[in-house]
Design brief:
Blueprint lengths: L2 H11 L1 E6 L8 H4 L12 E6 L5 H16 L8 E7 L9 E8 L5 H7 L12 E4 L5 E7 L3 E8 L5 H12 L5 H10 L1
Helix pairs in contact: 1-4, 5-6
Length: about 190
């Protein structure tokens, strides 16, 4: 996916694209996805909303923003953060990278953003990973069988399951070169 398509898709969610993050010593996106496997002992905090809620998208937006704010996802007055994106076209393997983004005044992460396919697998089905620009917190949106959820994991560098996954990425010669290098330098 090129920058223009990415920018247009993110704008539907109320997210301004600022470019691909080129920092090499950053937790790889693929390892950040593992946050969903973390437990309470890892500092994980969850908000879960049932699909039967008539205002599930609106309530999920409020929950996402509340958890993002409380956990420290946003930095600066522009509410900047990193968003995991797949740069691959439809016919190639995933190319996962962090995009530098900022939250605009009018946003709809769990509605338009998810429905666009950039933050989920369709309307009402969030699947995304975000990280603070400092790397101090990972925020993950996901879909369960009968609910959707948002979870935050602070200090991913101290979470064993995430570190173990990053170690596997760093040592696997079949890992994407960028991910392998990022994992190695992050560790």
């Amino acid at each position: 996916m090129n920058d223009q398509k990415l920018s247009e898709a993110l704008a539907l969610a109320g997210i301004r694209f600022r470019g691909i993050d080129e920092t090499s010593a950053t937790l790889p996106v693929r390892a950040a996805w593992i946050a969903v496997s973390c437990g309470r002992n890892d500092g994980r905090r969850d908000v879960v909303l049932d699909f039967s809620d008539a205002d599930v998208a609106s309530n999920a937006n409020l929950s996402w923003f509340g958890l993002a704010s409380e956990s420290g996802l946003f930095s600066g007055p522009n509410r900047e953060f990193l968003l995991g994106v797949d740069l691959a076209d439809d016919e190639s393997a995933s190319i996962l990278r962090w995009a530098k983004v900022e939250l605009m005044e009018d946003w709809d992460i769990m509605g338009s953003g998810v429905a666009s396919g950039i933050l989920g697998s369709g309307a009402g089905k969030p699947e995304f990973v975000m990280m603070s620009t400092s790397g101090a917190v990972v925020l993950r949106g996901t879909t369960w069988e009968d609910s959707i959820g948002v979870l935050a994991v602070p200090m991913p560098d101290r979470v064993k399951i995430i570190r173990d996954y990053a170690e596997r990425l760093a040592s696997n010669p079949r890992s994407d070169f960028h991910e392998r290098r990022s994992a190695f330098e992050w560790l």
